[in-house]
Amino acid sequence: MTPSSIEFKSHVEQEALAGRLPVLARDRVYKTYGSFLWTCCAFSAATWAFLIGSYLPYVGDWRLGVMGYVIGLMIGMAIVTLASGVPSHKYGTDVIDNAKASFGYRGIVVPLFGLLATLVGWSYVVEALTARGAANIAATMTGTEVTGTSHEHLVIGVALAALVLVWLIASKGPKLFERLNGYIGPLHMFITLVMLGILIHKFGLQHLWTTQLPADQMLSKDPVQGFALAVEFGVSNSMTWWPVMGGLTRLVAKRKHVVGPSVVGVGVLGAAFVSTVAALAAISAGTYDPTIWMIAVGGPVFGSIVMAIVLTANIATMVVMIYLAGVSVQQIKFFARLKWEFLLALLLLPGVYFAFKTQWLLSVVMSWLSYNGVMFVGITGITLVDYFVLRREQIDVTSLFAHKGGKYEFWNGVNWIAVIVTVASTFGYLWLYNPVTVAMAEPFRYLGASLPVILLSGAAYYLCVRLLIWPLRKGDYQATSGVISRPSLVSQREAGTVAVSL
């Protein structure tokens, strides 16, 4: 192989891993079951995993809360991985590119908005959680107050340092954070296991198993409703993984390593184990704030060490989210022309402002993000039915990079049926359950919200395609019985000018 061909191969690989080019099988970074498992585990076991677990006792019986949350998350992760992860793995394409088959090349602005708001927005939230958690550790170790100017200065400094560290790691591409997560994931699980051992030693198994929150603090005294609420926490949480799984599975080498690590890494290790320990610790310490109960349970020294490791996992989580956002935002031509390092810096730039507003961010923006994630319930139902039922797992990859005249043009680039179903499903979900006010309609008690909305949105989309889109011969649905199209390697700068088959 000549030096020029080696250089070209390296350039193409970099364009794929840091851009929208389909990732070739030989270039994918997750070669084994464990490598992808630990990335899913490290991503899901950040501070929010302990925070959610600490909230589960509030649904009623903490045992029902943990069990319902785990069941919901495992079901939801299986659905989401099928809807966004399987197509991305098969063709090596980004999740937003795949969504063009159902939303159109302009209609993908709807899932793209949700993706960017979720990934970038939560990156800033994790930045704030990391900064305030690190400042609390410093205050505990030095015996100083967690209020005052010096404390806030430390919060700001940690937040800015976190942004720089995330930029440095993400700039190197997914190969680096795949290696880092191979250490962070197992270490996180080990620390959580040690925390469980401390809880058992301090309080005893009998006390931990039977102790509940005071009844006046519970969201519901009805065990059926409490269990439904916990299941919904799990399913709705997994829906926000729609942009994540599609972005990560294009980097997985083998199909048999797609669903298992997703469900086990997120549902079992990142949820079942972590949330159980967090629920027990929250009840025992009398607070849902993990930055407080970790130190209260583990002691000032060990509790601070545990918190530091959890904060390290936060950095890994931010790296994954910013990387995925950086790939997907290149759907917009302006961002596609930017150098990868500069693009990531641009995405992280608002975080400099939020470094000075961490308290406001945690109190206000998290509520908006809770509403924002609801839209993925309908998107999941649409993309699941579109890929497996209507298209029979066949996508013309070349058309994903084409605009006018492509097979997925629909109506001037927009599939209005998919957009309308997404909007309708969002309102339907909020009628069944409001994630901020916790208002629940009567059917929620037995059905939850996410699962029926996924089912109804998928069914509605199927009927609309068969009755409206199919007869108008839009979207290339008639070609599902043809030859399966192979991925094409298309330049992110000049779409359609380069084609290299897998």
UniProtKB/TrEMBL annotation:
<feature type="transmembrane region" description="Helical">
    <location>
        <begin position="338"/>
        <end position="356"/>
    </location>
</feature>
<protein>
    <submittedName>
        <fullName>Cytosine permease</fullName>
    </submittedName>
</protein>
<feature type="transmembrane region" description="Helical">
    <location>
        <begin position="368"/>
        <end position="389"/>
    </location>
</feature>
<dbReference type="InterPro" id="IPR030191">
    <property type="entry name" value="CodB"/>
</dbReference>
<dbReference type="Pfam" id="PF02133">
    <property type="entry name" value="Transp_cyt_pur"/>
</dbReference>
<feature type="transmembrane region" description="Helical">
    <location>
        <begin position="263"/>
        <end position="285"/>
    </location>
</feature>
<keyword id="KW-1133">Transmembrane helix</keyword>
<feature type="transmembrane region" description="Helical">
    <location>
        <begin position="62"/>
        <end position="83"/>
    </location>
</feature>
<dbReference type="InterPro" id="IPR001248">
    <property type="entry name" value="Pur-cyt_permease"/>
</dbReference>
<feature type="transmembrane region" description="Helical">
    <location>
        <begin position="410"/>
        <end position="432"/>
    </location>
</feature>
<feature type="transmembrane region" description="Helical">
    <location>
        <begin position="153"/>
        <end position="170"/>
    </location>
</feature>
<feature type="transmembrane region" description="Helical">
    <location>
        <begin position="182"/>
        <end position="204"/>
    </location>
</feature>
<feature type="transmembrane region" description="Helical">
    <location>
        <begin position="305"/>
        <end position="326"/>
    </location>
</feature>
<feature type="transmembrane region" description="Helical">
    <location>
        <begin position="103"/>
        <end position="125"/>
    </location>
</feature>
<feature type="transmembrane region" description="Helical">
    <location>
        <begin position="444"/>
        <end position="464"/>
    </location>
</feature>
<feature type="transmembrane region" description="Helical">
    <location>
        <begin position="36"/>
        <end position="56"/>
    </location>
</feature>
<feature type="transmembrane region" description="Helical">
    <location>
        <begin position="224"/>
        <end position="242"/>
    </location>
</feature>
<comment type="similarity">
    <text>Belongs to the purine-cytosine permease (2.A.39) family.</text>
</comment>
<keyword id="KW-0472">Membrane</keyword>
<keyword id="KW-0812">Transmembrane</keyword>
